[in-house]
Design goal:
Shape: elongated
Number of strands: 12
Distance between the termini: 87 Å
Radius of gyration: 24 Å
Structural class: alpha+beta
Oligomer: single chain
CATH architecture of the largest domain: 2-Layer Sandwich
Number of helices: 6
Largest sheet: 5 strands, mixed
Helix content: 10-25%
CATH superfamily of the largest domain: wza like domain
Strand content: 25-35%
CATH class of the largest domain: Alpha Beta
Length: about 220
């Protein structure tokens, strides 16, 4: 039976898997099912370099700590796993151990994992990585602000220190805006920045200090 006739009789649930395999192993051949008038970008996730990109995740978005991923290898059920990216951007995968995926797009991470399996363990592996749950990009504001707590950084946007403090309701009357600290983890190492937020708010020559996920902003009490 020819490959094309096999596709015709496959159930819809198997069609995507079969097309996916052909795309990965026989590029640039791509066979797509369904009504040609159907908007395929909504119904079929795009397939790139052996990996599947979900419609809910931007192709340009980089993977972040606390993202939850599902990793599967075609016809290798014992390698399929569900993992959470740790604070240093790594996951633990069967056979491979610790693999760095943080800071990579979904496609880049898929290609990276696929090459690792291909180099030492499997022949022409077909790897699929999907983001099961996107981590909330949060920072916290503590100390002398009106509403201490956790706040989210909007997806695909940035937020400055002053904007973050504003989200927390602004300074209290006891705050010392000239000594605001930001604790941050960089490459697994804690760092503390001290910012004069008062001067920054009054002088446009100061560049905005951009907050990052996981930052802890602390506004200390002024000394009378």
């Amino acid at each position: 039976m020819s490959p094309s006739s096999s596709i015709v009789i496959c159930a819809p649930g198997r069609w995507l898997s079969y097309c996916f395999l052909l795309t990965a192993l026989h590029a640039p051949i791509a066979l797509l099912a369904g009504d040609p008038n159907t908007n395929r970008s909504d119904s079929i996730p795009p397939v790139m370099s052996g990996g599947q990109v979900t419609n809910q995740v931007s192709r340009s978005r980089t993977l972040q700590p606390n993202d939850i991923l599902t990793v599967s290898v075609y016809q290798q059920a014992d390698l399929n796993t569900r993992v959470t990216i740790d604070d240093r951007g790594a996951v633990i995968l069967p056979l491979l151990g610790r693999v760095e995926v943080g800071g990579k797009t979904l496609v880049e991470a898929t290609e990276h994992v696929q090459k690792l399996y291909d180099s030492d363990y499997l022949v022409n592996p077909v790897v699929t990585i999907q983001v099961e749950q996107i981590a909330a990009l949060r920072f916290s504001v503590l100390g002398e602000v009106q509403r201490p707590g956790f706040y989210e950084i909007p997806t695909n946007e940035s937020i400055s220190l002053l904007e973050g403090i504003a989200k927390a309701g602004g300074f209290t009357r006891l705050a010392a805006p000239s000594k605001v600290t930001i604790q941050r983890i960089e490459n697994g190492v804690p760092k503390i920045y001290t910012i004069n937020a008062e001067a920054m708010s009054k002088d446009t020559r100061f560049s905005p200090f951009r907050l990052q996920p996981g930052d802890v902003v602390t506004v200390i009490q002024r000394i009378f």
